[in-house]
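A quick aside before the break. I want you to see a complete sequence-to-structure record at least once, exactly as it would be stored in a machine-readable document. Don't worry about memorizing anything.
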Amino acid sequence: MSQALSQSAAQSVSQPLYQQLAEQLGYLTWPLFICAFVALMIILERLALMLYELPKRDNWLTQLRQQARSATPEQRQQLTAEISQGRSMLAKGTALLLRHSDQSREMREEIVNLWLVKQKSRLLSGLKVLQIIGIITPLLGLLGTVLGLIEMFNQLGLSDGPVTPSELASGLGLAMNTTAAGLIIAVPAITMAHLFTLWAERRCNKLAHALNLLNLWLAGFDQALSIGSDSAAQLCSKAATCKEASCQVPNGAS
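That is the input. The structure line, written in tokens, reads:
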């Protein structure tokens, strides 16, 4: 008995990995392998995009927020030179605003909104496929289990001798391997798809907030870039100052 086990173990070690998987998973080896490969590629590509979009790549925005003046032609030229080499989404959105700085604030908002829709679709690309993989792989695993059980019962029906518990255990074990493989692929795929979706939505919201502040800064609003970091009292005082200024303009004009 021990010699037979050692021989079978030696044979399994000498076999290639794909042949071992084919023996364990049966007919659905290739579908499960393709799903696992596609899911892995999507996850690695999304992780690379997350690393590429780290906030520390946009240090120019932190330096710009420390200024208390509205946009001047010199500052616009300096900002254009700083972000000319930047490849992050925020740098590209800021460059888009600067290229249309001669337009009105409302027109720049429409341009940025259209650009943000395109960037959101880019951030969410591939995640639907990842969710589909997470849904179909357990079904493929269940299908492989059913096919394995059918094959096992057919073999048991052809045998003339008594059915031993070891034969049932080995047949059921091979049939359950596909279900386990499908779940192993589905759980990380669904989890990462939801995590990447949350990150993409949060990233789009941050981009929209930063670009709106930059648009106000280009329109001449003093300290627009420091709105997000100010306290509530400072924001109220700024709002009151802006309201008084807007009320004084008609009086001066009259």
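Two observations worth writing down. The chain has ten helices and no strands. The longest helix spans residues 165-218. We'll return to this after the break.
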